[in-house]
Amino acid sequence: MSWLKSSERAQVNEPVDVFSKLEGEIREFVRRDASTTPPSAPPQQGKDSELIATHVGSLVQQVSGTSVQEIEKLIAELHMLRETLQNEAARVQREIIGPPSSPKMPGDR
Hints:
By secondary structure, the chain is mostly helical. It has a domain at 15-33 and 45-97. It has 2 helices and no strands. The chain has helices spanning 6-36, 47-97. Helix 1 runs antiparallel to helix 2 (47-97). The longest helix is centred in the middle third of the chain and has 51 residues, at 47-97. The two termini are 54 Å apart.
């Protein structure tokens, strides 16, 4: 990826950063939950587990939604770059070939 500009590298790494943030939030959530539940307390069922599932589910949806949007944005940018490169290749080919020469008439030098 050394051919990418620093801003492009940042865009490519953005989903990784989002996943790292999600992982950190999940770890923090588990730590807080573990610290508030006494070791001798029976595991709580019902609302607490539903709340945890909802929170984790919403975090995963946020991250996956952002990632999908970023991937779609990158695909669109790649399509535009492909078109630009094709246009530039055609232009360079025309320059190499040069302008069409006019037919020589007798007496022309």
